[in-house]
Amino acid sequence: MIQAYFSLLSVEAMADFEKAWKGIPMDFQIWLAFVAASIALLLIPGPTVLLVLSYAISQGKRVALATVGGVALGDFIAMTASLAGLGALVLASAALFTVIKWVGAIYLVYLGIKLFKSASTASLGDLEKVSYTSASKVFGHAAAVTALNPKSIIFFIAFVPQFIAVDSPLLPQFSILILTFVGLAAINALTYALLADKLRSKIAHSFVLEWFSRVGGGALIAMGVAAAAFKRA
């Protein structure tokens, strides 16, 4: 009985939402499909998620929350650039693709080395003695890692057109999809940051922080190497 009630409630809520959607220049069902696909893709951990987890566990929620804004900005830049034509240019220009690829790869390796080195700081004492990175730097790191990933630009070029109606105005559809994806990406990063911060309070031991910093730094370096080896299809 209760299940039937909630099922009916969700159907009614969806119907109300669909009515409210009328007037928006994009098919509601297509938008729902985009939301579902985006959530599935965002749940797959990548360099951005690893960066969020690393900052949340090693430096706490105050610093980690800055990554959320950085992730949102990075995704906004990458997605907007892709839909504005930069993605097509990257695919067409081997030189531009190589430049973006190497800048992103080198930056990932740099962050990985920095995180790996911070392991020695974490081993000196408890969480309160760990040296903190400013929120503004963390914001910049997250934005750069997210935006400077050539896979992101190429991914958006391949992913977004599936949800575009070519016989309707493109700008409103692009705006809706960009805002939707950026919002979901920010929520995803926030969820990882808050969960990692809760985990942090349970592992308040310097040797755990040292281990996590080394593993996280090594993983970022590996992702940087993988990004450098990435080739256009």
Notes on the structure:
With 233 residues, the protein is mainly alpha-helical. It has a domain at 61-198 and 212-233. Helices cover 81% and strands 0% of the residues. Helix 3 (47-59) runs antiparallel to helix 7. The longest helix has 33 residues, at 170-202. The termini are far apart. Residues 1-6 and 122-130 have low confidence and may be disordered.
Keywords:
233 residues, mainly alpha, 10 helices, globular, disordered N terminus, Homoserine/homoserine lactone efflux protein, amino acid transmembrane transporter activity
Would you count the extended β strands for me?
0
Sum up the overall morphology in one term: globular
The largest sheet is: none
| Mean pLDDT over all positions | 73
Radius of gyration: 20 Å
Short description:
Keywords: Cell membrane, Membrane, Transmembrane, Transmembrane helix. With 233 residues, the chain is mainly alpha-helical.
